[in-house]
Amino acid sequence: MDPEFAFAFRGVEATVGRFRLRDISFSLPQGYVMGFVGANGAGKTTSIRCLLGMQRVERGEIEVLGHRVPAPVALRQDIGVVLDHTYLVGEWRLSEVERAVGPFYERWDSTRYHDLLGEFGLDVRARVKDLSRGMAVKLMITIALSHHARLLVFDEPTSGLDPVARDEFSEILGEFLTDERHSILFSTHITSDLERIGDYLTLIHDGRIIATGSKDEILDRYRIVRGGPDDLTDVVGIPLIGLRRTGVGVQALVTAEDAELLGDRVVVDPPNLEEIAVHIGSSEHDAALTAREYS
User: Which pLDDT does position 9 carry in this prediction?
Assistant: First the structure.
């Protein structure tokens, strides 16, 4: 076990119904943020469930904060989790949420809990069942940050938040990361959330890791190519990831190396995270080919 890693997946395979994770390997050093990016159904939630010991792993191993999964029960003290749904009783008031959840955590911080409720505009008298989607997400984030966890695991935490709340959330995570022992796994399809806080990126598609590395490495790995409607029709041996052809033009994602091979036949631009995610998520065949040849 390597205590320098917040977590590490090594050759993990798991099956849920007809869906399968295949040879999942990626890791995050302590003190950083990993953006975990992929379309709905790509395997993000299944991977997180494996990390948390909620899904059986058929092959490979997972390490979390120096412990192999399944980890000791005491490790839950060091992990804060925000899933894409609430696990709380609908009739509970937010003051009752603290009384129910707090005793499970040795380092529960009541002052922190109430301060965050105030920052997020949540009334302690409100009932869980009456919260909007966005408010419920804020509550789950509040709980995750109130027991002084070392690793935060977020599964689409900002999908129900408006832009102002997402900005507040990013600021809170920035405060959390001032401690170099703190780390975050941030699963999302809203790539703008990662532009400011992401240090590392892992791209997943159809149960396979397409690319993993620092954010700059991932951005440097790909290029967007654009041309006229008849361009790229005769390209052989170069995967055109998420190829889009319309009556007025063509666009695709390629690796930086392949972009050089295309020469001046097309316009070549550096992509942003959203463009990479969209193109990879839109083409199963090309994304899988890229995973085999370039990861």
Answer: 97
The string of DSSP letters for 210-229 reads EEEEEHHHHHHHEEEEEE-T
DSSP state of 72: P
Say if residues 147 and 76 touch (Cβ distance below 8 Å).
no
Element (H, E) at 33: strand 33-37
Residue 74 tokens read as: 């005491």
Residue 186's Cβ-side half-sphere holds a number of Cα atoms within 13 Å equal to: 25
Mode of pairing for the β-strands spanning 208-214 and 200-205: antiparallel
- Report the C-alpha gap between 185 and 9 in whole angstroms: 13
CB 190 within 8 A of CB 241: no
pLDDT at 288: 41
Residue with tokens 């990626």: 26
What are the average pLDDT values for consecutive 10-residue runs of the chain, which has 295 residues?
A: 84 96 96 91 93 94 93 88 83 95 94 93 94 85 91 81 76 86 88 82 94 93 92 88 90 93 88 90 52 41
Could you tell me the pTM of the whole model?
A: 0.86
Contact present, 77 and 106 (Cβ < 8 Å): yes
